[in-house]
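W.,

You were right to be curious about this one. When I first looked at the sequence I had no strong expectations either way, so I just let the prediction run and decided to look at it fresh. Below is the sequence, 350 residues in total, followed by the output.
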Amino acid sequence: MRCRDAESRLVGGAVNTLRAVLQGGRPGGPQLEVSRILEAGVHGKRTLVYDTFDADVIAHVVGFRGRQLVFPLDWRNEALLFDMRLTAKAILKETTSWTVSIPQHKDVVQVYVEGVELDLMLAPDCVPAGALSGLDPVWQQHMLLMGPVYDDPEAAHRDALRERANAAALAECLQGQSAEVQGVVLLARAWYKLGVCDGVEPEEHVGSGALAALVLAADKRLAERGHTVGQGDIYQLELFLEVLRLIDEVVTRGSVVMVDAGEWGYRRELGMRCARNWENDKVKIIHPIDPTCNLARECSGRRRQPDWEGLASEARQLLRLASHASRGEGQPHTSTLGRTEQLLHEIKGL
């Protein structure tokens, strides 16, 4: 249950294979014209959890079956998008020995490589070829997508397509966090996947993006109280406990979690001007770079809402166990706290 070089190399090799297969020349021309492929999600954020592992890979697509795709029109055509995923699945099954499927509750192509799950997301490439040559295309796409939102937040609506198109920017934002914060993102995901979501239907799982946003928000809180990174396990334990407190708070009190993501994001004042998109939601964890998006809520209509009550209950239980352990009471190692402490030791040096 640890981040190992072997698993990291496995994912890196799989991503390189995806690049070769989806971007390489094929007889008769490519059915999917892919401009770039990026690692994102868990592996892209360097928060790989062995035995609970998945990785997100983004393929930016500019053409399909010889026709250039038009954004956003073509990308709102669900039948076309499903056909693109079927095509990607067929290409991968034809050219690799991987197990490839299209899950019902996720808009991705799922690939299994030696026990590791990769979610391949097809996303639009909105940056015109050659535009502002020399600038990071992830940054260019981010500004093209989010500029109108930041310029007129009162008129902005949540848009699942915009979130998908800008997924690489969120990964870039999270990669800039400290090693301690990265480690607690790993820890929170491991705690959730190893113990909390047992018995929870996949359609009700809390998303990894929401967990990451909670870690960022907890880190900001600790900074405001004078806590500083650089203390290794001590800071990571404090941060993880603060994440648990924040989970309880957002579920029981309805507090709004909103993080200042620096150059990639927005200030809270601007974010609150988008509140009509999520102010009536019970749990509010606002996307670090898109203030119209509540990561705590499923918006596609294809899944049930995440089980936040169950997560908050587990967080309160773990906080009680941590409190008892600090006073020398109870047997925390028989609980998820024991697993968490073990994982915390394994984080060191990642």
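Here's what jumped out at me. The chain has two domains: 5-125, 144-347. And, maybe more interesting for your project: The chain has twelve helices and eight strands.

Coffee later to discuss?

I.
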